[in-house]
Each structure stands twice: as structure tokens, then as C-alpha cells.
Amino acid sequence: MKSKSKKLRIFLCDLTYDTILLVSDTIPINIGFIASYINKYLSKDIEISLFKYPQNTIEAIKKNPPDMIALSNYSWNSNLSEFVSSIAKKYNPNVITSQGGTNFPHSVELQKDFVKTKKNTDIFTILEGEKSTLNLVQLILECNLDRKKIFEKPIDGCVFIHPDTKNLSDDKQLFVVGETLPRIKDLDEIPSPYLNGTLDKFFDGKLTPFLETNRGCPFTCSFCHTGNDYYHKLNKFSSERIKDEISYIGKKAGYLGITNLHFADVNFGMYTQDAKVCEWLMESKKIYGWPLQVMATTGKNAKERIMEVTNILDPGMLNLNMSAQSMDGNVLENIKRSNIKVTVMKEINEELRKKGRTTKSELIMPLPGETKKTFLNGINDLLNSNVGSLTIYTLMMLHGTEFQNPKFRENWGYKGKYRIVPLNFGEYENTRIFDYEEAGIATKDMPFDDYIYIRSIVLMVESLINGRPFDEIFQFAKTLGLKKAYFLQLLRDNINKAPDNIKILFDEFVKDTKAELWDSEEELLNHYRSDDNFELLKQGKVGGNLIYKYKSKSLVLLKNEWIEYMQYQLKEFALAKYNDLYFNDDMESQIEELCLFCKYKLNGVLDGQVNSIPQINNFKYDILSWIDRDDENLKIANFRLKKPITYSFEFSKDQKTNRTDLFKRYGTDINSLSKIVTRISNLESQFRKIRTIEDNFLRDIYRDLQGENFVRYALVN
After folding, report:
1. What is the pLDDT of residue 708?
2. Shared fold status for 8-177 and 187-459
């Protein structure tokens, strides 16, 4: 029994695996909110410590075990949190353990099934965490840590299996469900964990600042946990608070050389307040040099407003995200999602490109009703809309979504397999821990072979399209009547004609894609727990994000081979379409010059070992003027020069600073590069800038100069 004279010791933990690198590398604002909220009411009675790193948490438990430990419960750290709960119980059998977060079912039946697998977690706080955690802490204080009293009756905002019944058969276990607590309407009720210093310890040079300006989502997408009715109403933090937080973070981040910012908002840019937020970010950038890059999920409609808002930021700081998820109307109905029309996308893209901006979009596969044909058509539609970047995700069968509903899965013929959440594994206290996810790999409309084929197309979209690494080649292809999506399929279907290293890359990718999938959680765990297989994980040879791993290999190790292969396919296509009379020495010269241009601009991209000295060469065509015209029907032949022009490809001062920050924080091996590409939504920011010897000023490659003599550099997510 705890003495009432002593403060209740609470550990709040948002843990990340750190075996190879920090998987979740953001400042844990979630537990900062909870700490600030409960301290607001109970500071005299409690003592709170916050944790991010697993080993630090374990050592703190050993040294002085807490009375209560609350841990985040996301798809990437749920099992890690459960393990640390077991450590807490080992050193203090009387400790109250809880988990809270999005990785939790919404139906009571599925909740019980989930909770009974977490034997070391006493209580789960559900939905918004501040009130439910406060309610739990108040009860613990009232009961003076008497476990029998704590579990006497339901706890509002919480669910649990009664401790006395945990070891009984399933039918005899007592599952206790408390009343659902209302959301916090005025979010300023939660004191700022930045401004009160709660999160100061996490400004350690490793973690990225995390900022939340609002909560809630008006959309009902069935694949997303925020599609739940509970989250439909939007609640906001005050403008004054956000402005102060940006200034506070900027001062600390700028001092540490941190260059990026993550937003927790699920629809950034949709709301009037977001324009002010962007203005304050620019003020901070001017004063502190932070942020140079912004990662955010932009809104799903009101694109014109989002475009207006984000235009306040420097070019490249934030890309407009037009999240399509599917381009098929029937599929969108199946997932309860409205969508922006392709015609609107094209209009917005044209407007953005005039202003030197770009957009990105997303697709998910396999969604219910999607076929190989409709999905490839969707890729074609989006790429033809001139979207700057297209991210294609494999569907995750997340807890708290309709995809965990057995009837829904049966209706659409879903098959799921399990894989490790990329790099989410570790060994702590001589125990090997893994977090894994269930991936949708087939439906009645998309068999597994189609899934594998599309995955290889996804790799090509990421490696060849996103961020415009080979844009000049694809632009030339358009002038031949060969659009991006068809060019990709041409490259994929003729992969046997590619250079040997490209063929090896594809074979290894398909092999690894199949090998990472397991029929059951038990099979996955039995495989990776063995010494040999766990060693492969630690070496980074398996268990990572395959798309980004092979994208990094393509861009760092094989970019010249890809250029060679695309050059070959273009010649073959031109010869087949136009015959030998049309395909002449001039056309071959054009292709060669554009390929050489790509090689120079990409020299050193994502490569921490590269010499940053300028790369200089003469060109017979005015490629920059051709790029600036941004006309897919305009042939490079029209830009033949009377005398060669000299281009110098260079890294700017800001680029060198950002490259130093990225490689210092993440490293330069293939897994580190895979992580870096997830933190760079605009690969263009990594290209060498360019100057002409005659003009002698540095510019971004992709922009219309319009009389300006310089372009601000910015690195993006």
C-alpha cells in the first residue's frame, strides 16, 4: 500500500525501436499533452517522467520502479509497449499498467479479443487520451494504489479485463467497459507541453519537432481510424498558442541544426488559421533557420484554399497532397470516400506549376473492388495529371477500421499476410521483440500475382517518377507520344532487356516482397526469433521498407543503369513507331544530351560519400529553356543552340547544411537512406542546382525564372 504522503510516480512512454535507427523520430507530443493535462489538475499529488527510448525506460524502471506506467499503443510499438509493461511488473508487481492510442478496435467484441493478448497491460484508455488518463490517475490516487478497489467498477474512458478473471477461460473472463468520455472542445484546456518545458528533454538533436494545431476529421474513410464518428468535429488550438509554440520550437531547433517539422494535423491547409501558421513558420525560418522542410498531410478537399495557404511557404517546403486512394468511383463508394476529380487536379497542377510548385497524391492497394486494370488506369490518370509525386501504399488491415470486420473481409474476399513493420524490432533484456502488421495482399478482384506485379510498378513510380529524377527523359518520351504510365509498363514488361544490375534488382525485390509475408503471427515470430534470422534483421538485410530500400539502391547505385535502359527503350519505341527515316542522328543526340543532363543533376543525390565539387559540361541544346516552357508537346529539337552552353551543377550552401544534418542523424547505409527518402517528399530539393557560366547565378532546375536572380532553397519532408 502506497503512503499518501508520497507522490504517485508515473511514467509516460511513447517508445520507438532503435536497433538500426530511430524508427519513430518525432518528439512525443502525445505524452506531452497527457502529462501537461494531468499535471494541470494533480501536480501536487503526482510526479511524471516521460520516455522515448526503450533502454532508457527499462533502466529507469530498474532504478526506481513507477507506481503507474502508461504507454502508447500504435501499430508500430504496441508489442514493445507490452514488453516494457512486463518489465515494470517484474520490478513492481503492484504497478498499474496502461496503454492508449489508435491501434485499438472500436467494437466491444474485437476489443476483448485484442485486450486478452496483452496480459501485462491492466487497462486500455480509449479514443482521446487526456481525459481518460486523468480519470484513471484520479481513481488510482483515490484508491491509494489499492488494486482491488481500482478494479471494483467500470472506469470511464477505459476498458479492461478484470484482474481476477485474466487467467480463466475466455468465456469466464470479465470484460469491463467504461463510459465513453467526450472530446475536449477547447484544446487550450491542455497546457502546451512545449511552452511549459515538458518536452525540453527531447530536443536532443535526434528527434524532429511535432506540432498539432487541430484535431478531428470530417471524412469517413473506412481504412482510417479517424474515420470514426467520434472524430468528425474539428477542434482547434488557439492562434496565439500556435504562434508562441512555433517561436519556442524554432529557437531550440535552430540552435541544434534541426531542419524539419512534422504536423500531426490530418488535413493541414484546409482551414483559415493554417495561413497564419504558414506565415509564422516563414518568420521562424527567417529568424532561426527553422524549418527548411515541412511534413504534413494536406486536406482532402478545398484544394484552392490549400494551394493559397501553402503558397505562403517557400517553394518546396510543403507539397500539396491530393490524396486520391483510388481513381475508380465504385471503389471510392466502397470505402465511403469522396474524391477530387481528375479535371480539378489538372487545373490545380497547371496553376501550381506556373508558380514553381508541385503536388503529390496517394493510392492504396488493394482496396475493395479494385482490379489490376482499374488500378493501373488510376496510376495512368494521376501521372497524366502531372502530379509531382505519387505514393502507393499497401493496405494495412488496421485495428479500429472496417478492415478488421470479419464480414467485411469475407464479402470482398480479403486475404491478409503478416510482415514486420519496417525496422520495428529489437532485443531488450535478452528478449527479442517485434511489431508487425497485417497487409492486404489479395481480394476476389485482385489476386496475389496481380498484387506482386503492381508492387513492381510501385517501385518504378518511386524510383523513376517521384521527385522528377529522370524528368527530362520522360518529357522527351511524351514528345514521342509515350506517356509516363505506359513508359513504366514498357520498362517493366521488357525488364529482361535491362542491364544485368537492373534485372538483379527486380528479381531480388520480388523475392524479398514474397519472403517478408507470413501466413500467421506465430510463423513470423518463430522465423525471426532464431539466431540466424535475427542477425539478418540486425544487419539490415531483411525487415526494412522494401520500396524505399530498393528506391535508394536505384538512385544511389544504379541511376546510370536506369538511364541506359530508358535510353535503349526510347530508341526502340521511336524506331518501331516512326521507322529509320524519322529516327536520325539528331534524335539520338537529343536523347544522349538529356540523359547526360540527368546524370549531372543526380550526381551525389542521397549519397553521403560524394564529392560536392561542381560538375561542369557543355550542352548543344538549351535544356533549361526547354524545361521552363513546361510544354509536353514542345520538342527539344527547337532549342538547338548555335554554339554550346556551359552548365555547372552545384550544391548550394543550404543543401550542404541539410545533407550534413540528414547523414549525421540517420547515417549513409542503405537502411539509413531508406529512412531519409521517407523524410524527403520533394526529391528535387536534393538535386544539384544549376548555373550557366554566362549568367553566373544559381537556380533550381525546375522553375520559371521570370526575372528573378535567385531561388530560395528548401528541403521537404
Report:
1. 28
2. no
> For the CA atoms of 137, 141, 145, 150, what is the dihedral angle to 10 degrees?
-70
Instruction: Output the pLDDT for position 358.
Output: 67
The letter for the amino acid at 473 is I
| Domain limits, the chain | 8-177, 187-459, 578-692
178-219: pLDDT as tens digits = 998 888 999 999 999 999 999 999 999 899 999 999 887 655
Given a cut of 60, whether residue 664 has pLDDT beyond it is: yes
Instruction: List the strands of the sheet with 175-177, edge to edge.
Output: 46-51, 8-13, 68-72, 96-100, 123-125, 158-161, 175-177
The amino acid that residue 480 corresponds to is: L
What whole-number distance in Å separates Cα of residue 477 and Cα of residue 481? 7
Q: What are the distances in angstroms from CA 542 to CA 453, 459, 474, 533, 568?
A: 21, 17, 32, 9, 33
The grid coordinates of residue 312 equal 505562403
* β-bridge mates for residue 210, sequence order: 262
Position 344 confidence tier, pLDDT thresholds 50, 70, 90: low
Compute the mean pLDDT over every residue in the chain, rounded to the nearest whole number.
87
Phi-psi domain of 65 (left: phi exceeds 0; alpha: psi -120 through 50; beta: other)? beta
Write the DSSP symbol of residue 175.
E
- Please report the sign of the dihedral spanned by the C-alpha atoms of residue 378, residue 380, residue 386, residue 387: positive
pLDDT computed for residue 295 by the predictor: 81
> Average pLDDT of 232-247?
89
Alpha carbon separation from 299 to 214, 222, 232, 309, 367 (Å, rounded): 13, 17, 14, 11, 21
Query: Could you give the CA distance from residue 227 to residue 266 in angstroms, rounded to a whole number?
Result: 11
Three-class secondary structure of residue 397 per DSSP: coil
| Confidence tier at 13 by pLDDT (50, 70, 90) | very high
pLDDT value, residue 315? 74
Of the chain, the end-to-end C-alpha distance in Å amounts to 49
Cα dihedral angle (349, 354, 356, 359), rounded to 10 degrees?
Answer: 0
Q: Compute φ and ψ for 372, nearest 5 degrees.
A: -55, -45
DSSP 638-658: GGEEEEEEEEEEE--HHHHHH
pLDDT mean over 599-618: 89
Measure the CA–CA gap between 546 and 671, rounded to whole angstroms.
10
CATH architecture classification, 187-459: Alpha-Beta Horseshoe (3.80)
Cβ-based neighbours of 488, under 8 Å, separated by 6 or more = 379, 457, 460, 461, 464, 465
Q: What is the pLDDT of residue 78?
A: 93
At the top level of CATH, which class does the domain 8-177 belong to?
alpha beta
CB-CB contact of 178 with 154 (8 Å) = yes
Q: In this model, does residue 55 exceed pLDDT 60? A: yes
Residue 631: predicted pLDDT: 76
Burial class (CB in 10 A: 0-12, 13-18, 19+), 625: middle
| Three-state secondary structure call for residue 152 | coil
C-alpha–C-alpha distance, residues 596 and 594, integer Å: 5
Distance CA 294, CA 194 (A): 18
The single-letter DSSP state of residue 14 is -
pLDDT digits (tens, 9 = 90+) for 388-440: 788 899 998 887 777 878 888 999 999 999 999 999 999 999 999 999 999 99
Where is 256: in which H helix or E strand? helix 239-256
* Pairing, β 46-51 against β 359-365: unpaired
Say how far apart CA 535 and CA 375 lie, in whole Å: 37
Pairing of strands 8-13, 293-295: unpaired
